[in-house]
Amino acid sequence: MVSNVKFQRADLPRSFDISKYDTCAQFGVSEWYNNLMRRALTRSMFENHREHYWTELNHTVDFWLENPIAPVRKIEEGDGYIKNVFRSQVRDQTAFELSCGDWALNVYGEVGSVYREAVAVMREEVYGDFKGDDAAKSAYEVLDVPAWKMLTDLGVNLSGEVAVNVDLYASEDKLVDDFRAWLKVTRSALGVHDIVRRLDKSDFGRWAQNRILAYLDLTLWAKVKGHMITNQVMGVALFPDEYNVNLAERIRKTVAPEASIAISTPYLEAMASQAMTNPE
Predict the structure, then answer these.
(1) Long-range contacts of 56-62 (CB under 8 A, 24+ apart)
(2) What DSSP letter does each residue of 19-51 carry, written as one string?
(3) Is residue 69 part of a domain?
(4) Is residue 190 part of a domain?
(5) Which domain holds residue 258?
(6) pLDDT tens digits, 37-85
(7) What global pTM score does this model have?
(8) Which of 16, 183, 235, 279 could anchor a disulfide with 30, C-beta 3.0 to 4.6 Å?
(9) 183 domain residue, yes or no
(10) Do residues 271 and 204 both lie within one domain?
């Protein structure tokens, strides 16, 4: 439960010291991934399992204020936040994945009844007696959608991974153009952040300047402890030497949105993959 008591800068724990975060200015993609991923795990634990891990959560948020910078750790292939991430984000569908492609229809029970019934009709058309009747046409229409749509309709978490057919006989220029168009439409349909370019020093410098790691630590600490920190108090805590700026608005318009994007799953997985090939 969030306390209604007014929370002032002096009420923050003494362990919080904004200067502890100065080293963020030297972070590369590996350091940012390692630190943001740990905060994301803590936030997920709070949002989904707080009743089971209350003691651990209280210890963790206190620990981050005492020791906010996580130890350096090399990002290895197969690491990741919610799935295994590899050096290349384009890979072949394996024979195992193809042969087990209908597992979701068997796992998700009645939720997938429309798709399951359509599959049964079409299998009879292909492997049994071909009829080509209205039932077959209706079944085909049900299944004539992207595989990712069926899976999301069933409630499967795709973790950002979808399969696509590619015609290798097409020119490279045509394939690149088609892929960009498909990528834009599919990301939009699935609500995935449209990350256009690799993250670089301009992004990392902006995150350090906006003190997003400190913001995340104080926000998580307040949630776990049941406090509410106003944007003004947060602004004073993060930018104690700035006086001619509306700090509350800076938190609301810049710091909070920036932190939310940086700690999102798509950005974390993108950082993990990038760190494997270019750790700077």
Answers:
(1) 57/224, 58/224, 58/225, 61/217, 61/220, 61/221, 61/224, 61/225, 62/13, 62/15, 62/221
(2) GGGGGGGG--HHHHHHHHHHHHHHHHHHHHHTT
(3) yes
(4) no
(5) 9-84+196-277
(6) 999 988 888 888 888 888 888 999 999 999 999 888 777 766 666 666 6
(7) 0.74
(8) 279
(9) no
(10) yes
